[in-house]
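Lab notebook, bench 4. The sequencing result for the construct came back, and we need a structural model before the next group meeting so we can plan mutations. Quick request posted to the team channel:

Model the 3D structure of this chain.
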Amino acid sequence: QVQLVESGGGLVQPGGSLRLSCAASGFIFTNYAMRWYRQAPGKERELVASISSAGVNTNYRDSVKGRFTISRDNAKKMVYLQMNSLKPEDTAVYYCCAVRGSLSWGQGTQVTVSL
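Done. Here's the predicted structure in token form:
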């Protein structure tokens, strides 16, 4: 059974940085691509970044390119999202997602960018 636990969210000022972590268990981690999504209040959930199972290929939504970096450590079964130069519009609940045909979700972690 896929289990994903996110951590690392919090309150940060504009221009600051946060590193989100996602601990995976209950499945063969190296068989799954991984993604980070986010959902702001009143908005649909949107894909932020993705990484292939081996960690070779990554993709980002345009609004975070050059600011966010997704990575994974297959030995530790961890996925990370390094977020730099944060903006108020990055405020959202961030979700870790495992992808293999269907999607499996974590519970989310709140990121708030505000003065």
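DSSP finds no helices and eleven strands in the chain.
Will bring this to the meeting.
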